[in-house]
Amino acid sequence: MLGRKTKIFRFKSDPCHHGNVHVFTAEYNGRTLMFYGGGEMRGFNPESVDVTITFVNPYVEMSNLYTIDSEPKYIYLPVPDMGAPTYPLSFWYHLLDKIIENIPLDVIKIGVMCLGGHGRTGTALAIFAWMLKETNKPIRFVRKNYCKNAVETTEQIKYIQELTGTHEKVKGTKEDFSYYFTRKYYQDEGEESIKEWWY
User: Fold this and answer.
1) Cα–Cα dist 109/35, whole Å
2) Which CA distances in Å does 47 have to 44, 71, 125, 156?
3) What is the reported pTM?
4) pLDDT at 64
5) Sign, Cα dihedral of 187, 46, 106, 139
6) In the prediction, which pLDDT does 72 show?
7) Can you give the CATH number for the domain in which 104 is found?
8) CB-based contact 33:132 (threshold 8 Å)
9) Is 100:28 a contact under the CB 8 Å cutoff?
10) How many whole angstroms separate alpha carbon 181 and alpha carbon 179?
11) Cβ distance 60 to 97 under 8 Å?
């Protein structure tokens, strides 16, 4: 039985984004890249973009991280919920290069999605925005142009700041219990499978 002080999360009361949210457009290696963010729980539609970078399994099997030749096109990055990636900056540039190499369009719509569309999605969008010279304050940028709840944990903030060399005075939007889960996840799943493929 629930006590009086128990709080129940009600999804529809959360004033947040829904669907595919256009975050920014930038030029990269002669192509126009349009970035969209969203969450599986919030109605993101992978069929309305050219490729989706997803943190949600089971879209892609661990043994087949890169399925850009499928329809719809997915790139799966195995990062646990509330966790932060551990990839170097070169990985993110390589990711964009692979997308451009495999999608022969002048304008490419790139979706980024996780379960709720906040933490991991916001982290990736912040990195892309900084890489493509849209901002020198990537966390504030995604919170303003995408969702105020983007980039949820201290670990995600720290990863963005270390990767980009920026130092914004911001806080996570959720309690930070992610470090243990991220380390445990990589121990269980093996980050080596990613490194072997990408590097």
Assistant:
1) 6
2) 9, 8, 19, 28
3) 0.78
4) 43
5) negative
6) 67
7) 3.90.190.10
8) yes
9) yes
10) 6
11) no
Q: What are phi and psi of 22, to 5 degrees?
A: -75, 125
* Each residue's pLDDT tens digit, 6-65: 333 333 445 677 889 999 999 999 999 999 999 988 889 988 999 999 998 655 443 444
Are 130 and 136 in contact by the 8 Å Cβ rule? The answer is yes
| Whether 50 contacts 73, CB under 8 Å | yes
**CB-count exposure of residue 164 (10 Å: 0-12, 13-18, 19+):** buried
d(Cα 70, Cα 73) in Å, to the nearest integer?
A: 5
7 located within any domain? no
| Residues whose CB is less than 8 angstroms from the CB of residue 114 and which lie 6 or more positions away in sequence, other chains included | 39, 40, 54, 55, 56, 81, 120, 121
Evaluate whether residue 157 is within a structural domain: yes
Q: How do residues 64-95 score in pLDDT, each as one tens digit? A: 445 555 666 888 888 988 899 999 999 999 99
Residue 4: inside a domain, yes or no? no
Buried b (16+ CB within 10 A) or exposed e, 69-78: eeeebbbbbb
CA distance between the termini of the chain: 52
Query: What are the CA-CA distances from residue 99 to residues 146, 184, 199 (Å)?
Result: 22, 30, 16
Is the pLDDT assigned to residue 188 strictly greater than 50? no
Mean pLDDT of all residues in 117-138: 96
Question: By residue range, what is the domain housing residue 30?
Answer: 19-198
Looking at the structure of the chain, the number of domains it has is 1
